[in-house]
Amino acid sequence: MTTVAVKPATMAQALTRALRDAMAADPSVHVMGEDVGALGGVFRVTDGLAKEFGETRCTDTPLAEAGILGTAVGMAMYGLRPVVEMQFDAFAYPAFEQLISHVSRMRNRTRGRMPLPITVRVPYGGGIGGVEHHSDSSEAYYMATPGLHVVTPATVADAYGLLRRSIASDDPVVFLEPKRLYWSKDSWNPEHPTDVEPIGRAVVRRTGRSATLITYGPSVPVCLEAAEAGQAEGWDLEVVDLRSLVPFDDETVCASVRRTGRAVVVHESGGFGGPGGEIAARVTERCFHHLEAPVLRVAGFDIPYPPPMLERHHLPGVDRILDAVARLQWEAEG
Amino acid sequence: MTTVAVKPATMAQALTRALRDAMAADPSVHVMGEDVGALGGVFRVTDGLAKEFGETRCTDTPLAEAGILGTAVGMAMYGLRPVVEMQFDAFAYPAFEQLISHVSRMRNRTRGRMPLPITVRVPYGGGIGGVEHHSDSSEAYYMATPGLHVVTPATVADAYGLLRRSIASDDPVVFLEPKRLYWSKDSWNPEHPTDVEPIGRAVVRRTGRSATLITYGPSVPVCLEAAEAGQAEGWDLEVVDLRSLVPFDDETVCASVRRTGRAVVVHESGGFGGPGGEIAARVTERCFHHLEAPVLRVAGFDIPYPPPMLERHHLPGVDRILDAVARLQWEAEG
Amino acid sequence: MTVMEQRGAYRPSPPPAWQPRTDPAPLLPDERPYRVLGTEAAAKADPELLRRLYTQLVRGRRYNAQATALTKQGRLAVYPSSTGQEACEVAAALALQERDWLFPSYRDTLAVIARGVDPVEALTLLRGDWHTGYDPHAHRVAPLSTPLATQLPHAVGLAHAARLKGDDVVALAMVGDGGTSEGDFHEALNFAAVWQAPVVFLVQNNGFAISVPLAKQTAAPSLAHKAVGYGMPGRLVDGNDAAAVHEVLSDAVRHAREGGGPTLVEAVTYRIEAHTNADDATRYRGDAEVDAWRDHDPILLLERELTDRGLLDEDIVRRAREDAETMAADLRDRMNRDPELDPMDLFDQVYAETTGQLREQRAMLRAELEAAQNDQREGGH
Amino acid sequence: MTVMEQRGAYRPSPPPAWQPRTDPAPLLPDERPYRVLGTEAAAKADPELLRRLYTQLVRGRRYNAQATALTKQGRLAVYPSSTGQEACEVAAALALQERDWLFPSYRDTLAVIARGVDPVEALTLLRGDWHTGYDPHAHRVAPLSTPLATQLPHAVGLAHAARLKGDDVVALAMVGDGGTSEGDFHEALNFAAVWQAPVVFLVQNNGFAISVPLAKQTAAPSLAHKAVGYGMPGRLVDGNDAAAVHEVLSDAVRHAREGGGPTLVEAVTYRIEAHTNADDATRYRGDAEVDAWRDHDPILLLERELTDRGLLDEDIVRRAREDAETMAADLRDRMNRDPELDPMDLFDQVYAETTGQLREQRAMLRAELEAAQNDQREGGH
Ligand SMILES: Cc1ncc(C[n+]2csc(CCOP(=O)(O)OP(=O)(O)O)c2C)c(N)n1
Ligand SMILES: Cc1ncc(C[n+]2csc(CCOP(=O)(O)OP(=O)(O)O)c2C)c(N)n1
Ligand SMILES: [Mg+2]
Ligand SMILES: [Mg+2]
Question: What is the ipTM of this complex?
Fold first, then answer.
């Protein structure tokens, strides 16, 4: 990590670079959404694309999310590869019908004759002091929709690699970008970006033997921090970054849990009906006899996302994660 | 059950009666939706209401689901109690933004000053030979949305009682009506309809000692059938009908599972990211040391709802349920 | 800043940026639906075209009758008949070139087959063996769209993409009067106008959305008047006058092809049958209304015109009927065969590469089916 | 049935059911935005009203400046300024009676305070201590709506409900030019027209939706032209002319109150500041455009009119400024105090009766906070 070319880049920069490289490599890639042109998007992820590729390749659309996704469907039918930006998570909801009733089903509906290679980029999650409707975590909705891939990066390198993979995918991908990691930095070389594994592979971010923290997106750094802090309390925690919720990498996750015998699922999204339920249930189904304790969940509360001044109470933090680890029935071990 | 007045009624008739009685009891109850007037709804659940209460109390709206729910929000703000009919499950998706961004949050947003007592009736599920988009089970979306109640009846009496309770609730309720049970019959006296317990109470429909089938809505009769069939194979199955997914009745469910030590969650909705994950996870969290086997799930496949001629393969049936029961690690017992 | 501090003199003037973006006058539809048959305009109509339309109308009506019969025999899950609306269905298909695209709504099976799709394949959705039977790319016909108005933005996107690629392709999208109330209608028309996409929107105003009459759907002078709000021309046409619909649509297609952008066409027609075979139309309308429309039948109108002008002899009529009967007999025969179904298909096209999870579920179903077969073979339960 | 079999003679006739549902001509907006100030119409304007508008504009501009300053001090999470649009904001509030309802969008804090809501409570959403600070029923002001255009159907529903109950209540709903592209705009206007609900839609066309200029938002002659597609009148007005906006809105409100149904009003104005304090407007527009609009400033326009007619003396100007400064000082003071927050509030109004599940979560958070406090007390981490 100390070669000359490598310098710190933010996740937002890596995403921009991924879009740029994808557009340069394939003229059928079109970026579209609200304010993605001259402004470069409210998070500047599409910065410079309209200038480099012209307004027909990076298009400011009218303000209508169903229209954006619906026209993207038509464009994909004609062989383009639209990359749609939803400005904030909650503003993807108007496009819900198009996403569920068409995007996720068109391939299946037509027996594979009309695949829809659409990437829907959705900035998600809280922690940026956003007012109401600007901090939702809606991954549970997408997970429950067969036909979609659901991908979310947690590192700068993954942001690049997974977005390239998503755009290249012949299936629709909901690409969830953790808002509060946009400005996270890492040493990363834009001229030689590392490729990542195909969509659907989780990765062990930290090995450990006491218990597994299963997590993704914005909660990955929090879990890594918790793992560090946990050392002081005698726990050696493994952290698995799912990277994609769909497909779900049972193999990597279960291998880890079988090793450690204990697991906590961590995410910002509300707990009830959230991703953690599915994850806990499938891990338990597959690893029951390896489990020393039930798989626990640390998640957002089952409430509408709080206002900025209260959000820190809602977001899973280090202490709450370690509290859950502490409840993993350690006495049962001895 | 043999008094003179009691005669068989269908679930659809009980629902109609509930609407009628609610409208008669409270002039602020307004029914609205597509074709709910002269036609009485495509399932005839609103039959006769426009005639009895006039078109302003039972209103055919323009064909726009977001508009229907959005105007219902405004009506509720002014003190009415709108009961909205969505024609089919998948046709509720256009109203998703209104539901998530407003209906579920208005009370919280205004610190209780602006509650929205709206009931959204959604015919859901398959088994009626409906073509694409007519057989979805979307309860996972609603469960993952804090601020909504999610209620679903499985019997004629519950259809009446739960709908009355839902309309009377000061919170928004997504009231899921199992399409294929509309024509299910039971002896029921419309003149003396039995009240049911408040929303949020599950009920044990059949007691048993071998394992608990946790289910709701359209899968309740299937589970009861499976329990009967299971007797031949030596299983004495308990069947819990959740009746409401939100609030979730942990008490009743866990009491049952602690008694039996084994559980299978059964629903039509897709398994991955579906209600069963949450249910299995929370039961496991609460009953881990009572469990002889992991909580298993029998659910729809993780595919778009199949065409009519193939749907029977998708829907959880008696055999698939008993297969799951058989996998509950019985050898571990001995 | 107060007036005392302002620089320069105050000149009352209109808001600086404001100017009308288009002249509204040419966008407004005619006062009454445009007609050709029985009017002077008919003289200009191409006899060959009129005969072709006639043959297609007869065929279309026969198809509707046959499909409705098939519902009674349990061979179709449901059928939304377009009887009375054949002129719109047929003209929509005939106004397009082969390279163009059609975006039908769930009622538009006739337009789909008029475009060349196999009549049996066009019924797959309604028969229930799969969601779409034909290859959309083979005839450039999108799948029949069930969620109302959702196909409109698809048409816009496709037309826009074709234009970006430099291809000479127009998209024609069909929707009902009820569908115009959906947000997707609005968003699609707006995108089309802003992008000047080569797309034609055909609204079949057949008077009802299931049971809901137009008066409860809109208060607009006409549905065609909606066009001006998007900055595109709106055209109003008698939807039972096949020659008129064909002319108006052809004009709109040509206009789009030449870079003139989208057009909204409202065709005033009537749904003669119930909404579908499952519907009971007596609950919401009387016979008088239906009868009035029967007198304005699209086949009658065209037949009369052809007869008056000596363009229709018994021979043509007989051949049109025979043609229709042959199609109907073939449809009946082939629809009476059970389709071959493989439940394993449920899993194979959910994703480009079937996930491990779905492979597991596939294996489970296969095992179940084999077990059931074995049971049967052994005479078990 | 062929022509040979038809009953009666064939009479070519228009489609039986068709007739225009409304006369489109009166629904169309004027060719240019309606103006009062600097024109002959100004003579008819009530001097008292003009002075009231003036005082409110000055106050509104001061509020915008103060709120923007508060963002720099970290006292607001974000602030979308309506500088340059004060005429619309103020006129919207003043055109309503006390019993009427206002449905503001997220930019309309000025309209909200002009309606009597406490200036601090109006900022709760943007400060970030809760999602809405005021009681919507107290001043009949709905919460500021963040998801664009979603508040429009609410206004329609409320107005409709009031009418059903026999109450004399009009709803006025505000939306931006960008918001008109959303499906909810379409559905709301359509419902309003079909129901003849007493509602007024005010579109503030301020030229931009964040960075997207109007030309990329619509190709319509004007946004007011959208009205005809719903069968309601469309009015076009100079949005920087407070007297004109007030007059047009008051007319529309009166029309609605008298049972005439909804009106769509487009007020042509301009967003002088960036979209919010977080925006960088230099990325998408130049100074020249902004400067042109500065010369068409709503306060300037009104001041000039008042001065010309001798209706404005130094005294009124001074009092307006003092009033504004007092308000600003009070706002600054109160906003500089940290709001009192109780994290337990997170759980208490999700449902009418807090569920067991939420009570558990509440208890967990309380325990955490107590533990943290104890830690702190003990000097622990
Ligand atoms: C989004 C959506 N909502 C509701 C329905 C149910 N539905 C099917 S057809 C229909 C009426 C359609 O009326 P119209 O658009 O006039 O078309 P027509 O049936 O007259 O051809 C309705 C409400 C649907 N298919 N999609
Ligand atoms: C449904 C929805 N989509 C996107 C956004 C993000 N957003 C906030 S303001 C804005 C632009 C709004 O423009 P306009 O309607 O003209 O109002 P203005 O900001 O000019 O007052 C956008 C895109 C949103 N709030 N809601
Ligand atoms: Mg219709
Ligand atoms: Mg604007």
Answer: 0.97
